[in-house]
Specification:
By secondary structure, the chain is an alpha+beta fold. The protein has a domain of 151 residues: NADH Oxidase. Helices cover 41% and strands 13% of the residues. It has eight helices and four strands. Strands 1-2-4-3 form a four-stranded antiparallel sheet, sandwiched between helices. It is globular. The termini are far apart. The structure holds flavin mononucleotide. Flavin mononucleotide binds next to strand 3.
Length: 231
């Protein structure tokens, strides 16, 4: 259902991890990208660059990345060959972030009946990232490596605008940093230049409402807990 208020578009957005095959037109995707490009950026630098993949291009890339992902499961030594262009997460986790991360992971796995130690099922679930969760469209976003950290802040605003605008069209998304480890496959595949770094992928389409994974609802810390008021 299309969101008709800003509040509903923001609060109805969630990470969808199963899509149906209904496609999204080039016109609608272009409209969403143009809306997102209204995001603010420091001195209007507009650091975003998008590559929209669908059809055979998406199938081919998914096949290549799934093969790489499977090869790591078979030989964990290979993992170091696949490095993301930037650190999304800290190298050393700490509270309360590690607790939230664990809760998130185990709640999702719990919903899917995946228990601790069930490596094959975990592998299979994480692998769905590299099939864009069955979405007909996956967009890869890149940034110039030479830009500063602030540009990543700008990028986040752009990406959130995209996801919220997608709700206005009745569409669903899943931002995906999981792809970042496979930049060395993805960047040449999409024709990115030497100076480009992969920021993330994003699955786009219509949620498969019959899939239990899409009933996953994530909690948030209330404003009272993260806000300090000073007078
Ligand atoms: C930049 C970014 C990258 C993410 N990467 C992934 C990913 O690779 N795979 C995935 O399943 N979810 C990914 N997520 C989704 C988060 O897990 C999700 O946003 C969080 O758990 C909150 O849930 P919600 O999006 O449903 O509100 C990503 C989110 C963001 C913002």
């Amino acid at each position: 259902m299309k969101s008709s208020t800003v509040e509903d578009a923001i609060t109805s957005r969630k990470s969808v991890r199963a899509f149906n095959q209904e496609s999204v037109s080039k016109e609608v995707i272009t409209k969403l990208l143009n809306i997102s490009a209204r995001a603010p950026s420091g001195t209007n630098t507009q650091p975003w660059k998008a590559y929209v993949l669908e059809g055979n291009a998406l199938v081919d890339l998914c096949t290549k990345v799934c093969a790489a992902y499977d090869s790591i499961a078979a030989n964990p030594e290979l993992e170091k060959e696949y490095q993301a262009g930037y650190d999304y997460y800290p190298t050393k986790w700490f509270s309360p972030y590690i607790d939230r991360r664990r809760e998130n992971g185990w709640s999702l796995y719990g919903l899917l009946g995946i228990t601790k130690g069930d490596k094959d099922k975990m592998h299979a679930q994480h692998r769905k990232n590299f099939e864009a969760f069955g979405a007909p469209i996956c967009i890869f976003f890149t940034i110039d490596k030479e830009l500063g950290r602030g540009s990543m802040l700008d990028y986040g605003m752009f990406l959130q605008s995209f996801m919220v605008a997608a709700r206005g069209e009745g569409l669903d998304t899943c931002p995906q940093a999981a792809w970042n480890h496979y930049s060395k496959i993805i960047l040449p595949f999409i024709g990115a230049k030497e100076n480009e770094m992969l920021v993330c992928g994003m699955a786009l389409g219509h949620a498969d409402e019959t899939d239990i994974v899409n009933t996953f609802h994530t909690p948030r810390v209330a404003a009272e807990e993260f806000t300090t008021w000073l007078k």
